[in-house]
Write a structure and sequence with these properties.
By secondary structure, the chain is mainly α. The protein contains ten helices and no strands. Helix 1 packs antiparallel against helix 4, helix 3 runs parallel beside helix 5 and helix 5 runs antiparallel to helix 6. The radius of gyration is 17 Å and the shape is globular. The termini are far apart.
């Protein structure tokens, strides 16, 4: 873990993350290309940074089964000390947790064990009850929400997918911390699988190379 980083160390870590993501070798994507370009244009871990673009791209790696890229990125950002870097660490912890859950799902025991040791940073982190009981799930594919999406005058596909990706992240964290009475791990796994299927069933979202606008 890097404590009290110098400006040079911050820049070096950003460069290492981009190398780990290896964005130049990704297949072209009309739908997701803008996410990649946004990350390529600027990734900083300077004071006050909010690495949301990086977290979004890691979500996509995991959605489309590119665990290797996600794991490489998580293995770099886990060196960030949440106490001294003065950045929005929620995104960093989220990337580590999302990747750790996928490692468990895939049976990658060594990778899961490594990442597991970082999911509670800052020291002693425990997710709030409102997360563990499922209250933060957005359920974009519920009948009620889908009716609302369809009533909008513009295409809401990207918004629906984004809400679904947020649910995947929430579900992974719920699972890592043992689930709850309302959401035991078996239910979490099943709903995760269902949500992945629903996202990929959206127009243009079946594969990374989707033909979205």
């Amino acid at each position: 873990m890097i404590v009290n980083p110098t400006p040079e160390q911050r820049k070096e870590l950003a460069a290492e993350v981009l190398a780990a993501a290896d964005l130049d070798t990704l297949p072209p994507s009309k739908r997701h290309g803008r996410d990649v370009r946004r990350l390529q244009r600027k990734l900083t871990f300077g004071r006050g940074a909010v690495p949301s673009a990086l977290a979004s791209v890691v979500h996509l790696f995991l959605l489309y089964g590119d665990f290797a890229r996600a794991y490489r990125v998580a293995s770099v950002v886990e060196r960030i000390d949440p106490e001294t870097w003065d950045i929005d660490y929620n995104y960093v912890r989220g990337m580590i947790q999302d990747t750790a859950y996928e490692a468990h799902r895939l049976g990658y025991l060594a990778e899961a064990s490594e990442l597991q040791s970082w999911i509670r940073h800052p020291a002693g982190y425990t997710p709030p009850e409102i997360l563990m009981n499922g209250s933060r799930l957005r359920h974009p594919f519920s009948e009620e929400n889908m009716t609302e999406w369809r009533a909008q005058p513009v295409d809401m596909t990207s918004t629906i997918a984004g809400e679904g990706l947020m649910d995947l992240s929430t579900l992974g964290r719920m699972w890592l911390f043992g689930g709850s009475r309302e959401w035991p791990r078996e239910r979490i796994d099943a709903f995760y699988d269902e949500t992945v299927e629903r996202i990929k069933a959206l127009p243009g979202w079946a594969t990374w190379e989707g033909t979205g606008k």
